[in-house]
TrEMBL record:
Ranges for region Disordered: 464-483, 521-549
Keywords for the protein's UniProt record, in alphabetical order: Disulfide bond, EGF-like domain, Glycoprotein, Lectin, Membrane, Phosphoprotein, Repeat, Secreted, Signal, Transmembrane, Transmembrane helix
Keyword Isomerase: no
Name of the protein described by the UniProt record: Thrombomodulin
Record-level GO cellular component terms: extracellular region; membrane
GO terms of molecular function: calcium ion binding; carbohydrate binding
Species, as recorded: Gallus gallus
Upper taxonomic lineage: Eukaryota, Metazoa, Chordata, Craniata, Vertebrata
Location(s), subcellular: Membrane; Secreted
Pfam families noted in UniProt: cEGF (PF12662), EGF_CA (PF07645), Lectin_C (PF00059), THBD (PF25444)
């Protein structure tokens, strides 16, 4: 199998011819041996010459000196040499001044410009310098050699994108092949593009070429029609038949014979359809993609205006496009799953509980047990009736809150209630007080009028003249500032308050005493105004005595 994968051909090429390549010299002689497999062909030339002449000879037909990157290539060389002695140029040359023995290719480079390889077989040697190339011997060993010295021949490699299979003759017919690089013989495993096959005694000459429809390599000839069916099915892609000794090709249903009379092509091959072609027996008809319609000529396609179709394809706005359409919505609507839906104001509304779209905006509402906060219509407050309601607690039940004016109360059963604070017990109102849920209302007695939220003042004469009846009138509105919630005071706070009251009383007494002394004990003769009769008499005596002196 390895020998089948690496075919090699040996051939000779003259030294003098190699030296003058490119100057209009005659064609080089054919290789002494060659083999092809799928995409690669190898040839051997037993013609002495230097490395440059050998490389030019390989390049003359689109090849290059052989690269040996595996043991498979080594087997091919062994097959082509056929025990013949001598040294042949390989495609290795030294691009640097000296070799590097430590490296696998010793610093050499393939003529293809790379250094990739999985194989080497060097003759042991030390470091060498100069213009060096590589030869291979019958023992398959690689040896460094000066590039300008002649070798006994060279190995060429040709690469092709595809190839034709070998033909299978019958009835004693013989085949001879010839490759584009000049190799001839009958034992090739594959033939590259441009190879010819000579069939005797049929007198046929076939050419390896690419099929017009598929581009695959196949055997053909310039004359249309089939050749004898016993050789490669007459060259027919379909079936080959011989009626009255005349071979002809036939194609399966849905296809027809191509111009060469051997290949089978679709009836749509070369059809003028702009978009789609559908085979119809040995004919065809054209079709267009969705959004287009067939033109009057039966082959071109024209755009269909989908926006004028009935029924309409869009709910609101339609824009026709090339081969299709786009649906859009009016202002105030948005596209949701292919339909125009009104844009909901509630999607951006900050309602605590529920939201309802209304003309021009949205409206918030609350769940049962809650009412809308009159100060902020987007918030919901607890609706506490009969002076109590359930507290709002977090998931853990440890943190609970109540509305303003209510006090939190934890029941033994674990329920947390909000209990209304009776603000009237705190004597916030000067006269009369009415407790409400979460607040209170102050009233004034007859003859008084409200002064502020909690206090009243007597009705003046001017108020009476203005028609003020003296009745306190309707209840005073809920105070704007709710008094703090009643809470049990800490004992330390009670002691502090008591001490503060006592200190304040002592300060007031001291101030009163000081004022009294200042008023009732003036110096000298004024002392009698506030003293007793006896004190007055003593004071007068003191004054008389002083005058006598």
């Amino acid at each position: 199998m390895r020998r089948l994968l690496l075919p090699l051909l040996l051939a000779g090429l003259g030294l003098g011819l190699g030296l003058v390549l490119g100057l209009g010299e005659p064609e080089p002689p054919a290789p002494s041996g060659a083999q092809c497999l799928e995409h690669d062909c190898f040839a051997v030339f037993w013609t002495p010459g230097p490395f440059a002449a050998a490389s030019a000879a390989c390049e003359r037909h689109g090849g290059h000196l052989m690269t040996v990157r595996s043991t498979v290539a080594e087997d091919a060389i062994e097959l082509l040499l056929r025990k013949r002695g001598g040294r042949l140029w390989l495609g290795l040359r030294l691009p640097t001044l000296c070799t590097e023995p430590a490296r696998r290719l010793r610093g050499f480079q393939w003529v293809t410009g790379d250094t990739g390889t999985d194989y080497d077989n060097w003759v042991p040697s030390g470091r060498r310098c100069g213009q060096l190339c590589v030869t291979v011997s019958r023992e398959l060993s690689w040896e460094e050699r000066r590039c300008d010295e002649p070798a006994d021949g060279f190995l060429c490699e040709y690469n092709y994108p595809d190839s034709c299979p070998r033909l299978s003759p019958s009835d004693g017919a013989s085949l001879t092949y010839r490759t584009p690089f000049g190799a001839a013989g009958g034992d090739f495993l594959a033939l590259p593009h441009g190879s010819t096959a000579f069939v005797s005694p049929m007198g046929l000459q076939l050419l390896c070429e690419a099929a017009a429809d598929s581009g695959k390599m196949r055997w053909g000839r310039s004359e249309p029609g089939a050749w004898p069916c016993r050789l490669d099915n007459g060259g027919c892609e379909g079936s080959c038949e011989e009626l009255d000794g005349t071979p002809s090709c036939a194609c399966p249903a849905g296809k027809k014979l191509g111009p060469d009379g051997r290949s089978c092509v679709s009836p749509c091959a070369g059809a003028p359809c702009e978009q789609h072609c559908v085979p119809d027996g040995e004919g065809f008809h054209c079709m267009c993609s969705e959004g287009y319609e067939l033109g009057p000529d039966g082959s071109s396609c024209q755009d269909v205006d989908d926006c004028v179709k009935v029924p309409e394809v869009c709910e609101q706005v339609c824009y026709n496009t090339e081969g299709g359409f786009e649906c859009h919505c009016h202002r105030g609507y948005e596209m949701v799953e292919g339909h125009c839906k009104p844009i909901s104001s509630c999607s951006t509304g900050p309602c605590d509980h529920t939201c309802e779209d209304v003309p021009g905006g949205y409206q918030c509402s609350c769940y049962n047990g809650y009412v809308v906060n009159p100060k902020n219509p987007t918030e919901c407050l607890q609706k506490c009736e009969d002076g109590r309601c359930l507290a709002e607690c977090d998931a853990s039940g440890l943190y609970c809150v109540c509305p303003d004016g209510f006090l939190l109360d934890h029941l033994p059963n674990g329920v947390s209630l909000c209990v209304d604070i009776d603000e009237c017990e705190s004597n916030h109102c000067e006269h009369n007080c009415t407790n409400t849920a979460g607040s209170y209302i102050c009233h004034c007695q007859p003859g008084y009028m409200p002064f502020d939220v909690n206090h009243c003042i007597p009705i003046s004469q001017e108020d009476n003249e203005d028609g003020y009846s003296g009745d306190s009138g309707p209840p005073w509105p809920v105070p704007s500032h709710i008094p703090p919630k009643a809470e049990h005071l800490h004992p330390g706070a009670l002691v502090g308050i008591t001490m503060g009251v006592l200190c304040a009383a002592l300060v007031l007494l001291a101030v009163g005493y000081h004022l009294a002394r200042k008023r009732c004990h003036p110096p000298s003769s004024m002392e009698y105004k506030c003293g007793s009769p006896r004190e007055k008499e003593m004071g007068l005596q003191q004054v008389s005595a002083s005058q006598k002196v």
